């Protein structure tokens, strides 16, 4: 089914029609509060507003991440109205050096999702730390693990779920999942 959008003169009919679209995040800037999705079959880029992304449970999304959204044509163009699924950008799993490779199970889904809160994350430094509820030690979160999990950034205090391994220097996240999306995993 192709996406057919009106010419702008009869937007009331098109504003009612919601369709599902699969694409990739072209870019998303959490500071600006929006970004764009490119998808086959869409005649223009699709606006992704920060509020729509937050309703899914994420404050950011990595450039190149696969995304499935419900879209609607409006007087301002085609906009995402609901995020249904986010897939990590292509490129395979990022390993945190040799120490992580030996500790990773073949199927990461065998690792438990542990509820955590972001202690701090510095995108410029490329890492940060989170605290798992009920445990005193910090969990290291690398920016590449974050990106391969479909995120671009984390905010202090943000609720997330982590898949964690024990490394030589302590606990390390190997996957980040949004708090809300963890119930869908």
Explain the overall architecture.
- The structure is a single chain.
- The chain has 185 residues and is mainly β.
- The protein is 14% helix and 43% strand.
- The protein is built from four helices and ten strands, in the order H-E-E-E-H-E-E-H-E-E-E-H-E-E.
- The protein has helices at 11-16, 50-56, 97-103, 143-148, and strands spanning 18-29, 34-38, 46-49, 66-74, 77-87, 114-122, 127-132, 138-142, 159-167, 170-178.
- It has a five-stranded antiparallel sheet with strand order 3-2-1-4-5. A five-stranded antiparallel sheet has the order 8-7-6-9-10.
- It is elongated.
- Residues 1-15 have low confidence and may be disordered.
Q: What's this model, at a glance?
A:
The chain is mainly β and 185 residues long.
Question: Would you spell out the secondary-structure blueprint of this structure?
Answer:
Elements: H1 11-16, E1 18-29, E2 34-38, E3 46-49, H2 50-56, E4 66-74, E5 77-87, H3 97-103, E6 114-122, E7 127-132, E8 138-142, H4 143-148, E9 159-167, E10 170-178
Antiparallel strand pairs: 1-2, 1-4, 2-3, 4-5, 6-7, 6-9, 7-8, 9-10
Question: What characteristics describe this protein?
Answer:
about 180 residues; single chain
